[in-house]
Specification:
The chain is an alpha+beta fold. The protein has a single domain, classed as Imidazole glycerol phosphate dehydratase, domain 1 (Ribosomal Protein S5, domain 2). A four-stranded mixed sheet has the order 1-2-4-3, covered by helices on one side. A four-stranded mixed sheet has the order 5-6-10-7, with helices on one face. The longest helix has 20 residues. It is globular, with a radius of gyration of 16 Å.
């Protein structure tokens, strides 16, 4: 039997501060199931896309100071998600490590490239035509992905060369992130070692 099939790449993390209380479970080898309740409707919608198109199972329950705004909740959920991804990946032995995707969403095109290098870096070349999507501040897309990249030890580049609708931009970004992540966390059938000349990630 393939040793990969015996691995359980899961993680559960709880994080509580004066601003938020987050409980999160991730399973990298899932079917894309999402049970997400953050209190921020549009963010929940994006996390459902992330799970569905990456085939990563997500269970997230978060309570935050939404009477202030959604910033702390989005930031902390993203930090916990990144930490859980890193924990579930372990030493990253046998994975592809790199992933990329170019996803259209009507008028918008999102290009994502990522490296699960253990060395966080974040590039975000995106311009939203509106400051909000409903009551969701579009700047929180940047905040979410930067927090995710930092906590996961991910080198993440996000580029949207053209678009005219803010909702389409955000949705294309999260779908592209999901597809790129699915590639990166998958096992490489030709390489059972850690994918680095250093021998460690």
């Amino acid at each position: 039997m393939d040793s990969h099939l015996e691995q359980r790449r899961t993680a559960s993390i709880k994080r509580k501060t004066r601003e938020t209380d987050v409980s999160l479970t991730v399973s990298l080898d899932g079917t894309g199931k999402a049970d997400v309740q953050t209190g921020v409707g549009f963010f929940d919608h994006m996390l459902h896309h992330l799970a569905r198109h990456s085939l990563v199972d997500l269970a997230i329950c978060a309570q935050g100071d939404l009477h202030v705004d959604a910033h702390h909740t989005v930031e902390d959920v993203s930090l916990v998600l990144g930490a859980a991804l890193a924990e579930a990946l372990g030493d990253k032995r046998g994975i592809f490590r790199y992933g990329s995707a170019s996803i259209p969403m009507e008028d918008a095109l999102a290009n994502i490239a990522l490296d699960l290098s253990g060395r966080p870096a974040f590039v975000f070349n995106v311009k939203f035509p509106t400051p909000k999507i409903g009551d969701f501040d579009v700047e929180l897309v940047n905040e979410s992905l930067r927090s995710l990249a930092n906590a996961a030890g991910m080198n993440l580049h996000v580029n949207v060369p053209y678009a005219s609708n803010s909702h389409h931009i955000a949705e294309a970004i999260f779908k592209a992130l999901a597809k790129a992540l699915r590639q990166a966390i998958a096992f490489d059938p030709r390489n059972a070692e850690i994918p680095s000349t250093k021998g460690v990630l």
